[in-house]
Design goal:
single chain, about 110 residues, mainly alpha, about 60% helix
Length: about 110
C-alpha cells in the first residue's frame, strides 16, 4: 500500500493549478471594468427636461440635445459660428445658454 501512495505522489497532476498572477490580473480587469462603468454612468448627459429647466447646457452633447442635433453636428455649428453668442467656452468646455439656443434654432 505504501508503494502505491509513493507512486501517486510522483505522478504530476493532470491539470495544472492556475498561476496566482493570472488570477490577480483577472481581478484587476474586473475592477477596471467596474470603475469604467461607474465613470460612464457619472458622465452621462442629463435629460432634455433637466437641461431646459436650467439656464446652461454644458458640453456639446447637452447643447445638441437642446437643439435636436447630435454631438458632431453641434461641434460643426459651434466652430462654424452658426450658434453665435449662444455658446461660449468656459475652462475649455462649451457652455450654451438654453433660452438663446431655443430662440436661435427652435428646440421644440
Amino acid at each position: 500500500m505504501t508503494d502505491v501512495a509513493e507512486y501517486n505522489a510522483t505522478i504530476p497532476p493532470t491539470r495544472k493549478p492556475k498561476p496566482k498572477h493570472k488570477a490577480k490580473a483577472k481581478a484587476k480587469t474586473k475592477a477596471h471594468a467596474k470603475a469604467k462603468a461607474a465613470k460612464a454612468k457619472r458622465f452621462r448627459c442629463r435629460s432634455r427636461e433637466q437641461i431646459v429647466a436650467g439656464q446652461f447646457a454644458w458640453g456639446a452633447a447637452e447643447i445638441g440635445s437642446v437643439i435636436n442635433r447630435n454631438q458632431a453636428q453641434t461641434f460643426h455649428l459651434i466652430y462654424s459660428g452658426a450658434l453665435g453668442d449662444a455658446v461660449s467656452k468656459v475652462n475649455g468646455q462649451h457652455v450654451g445658454v438654453v433660452p438663446k439656443l431655443i430662440r436661435l434654432l427652435g428646440g421644440e
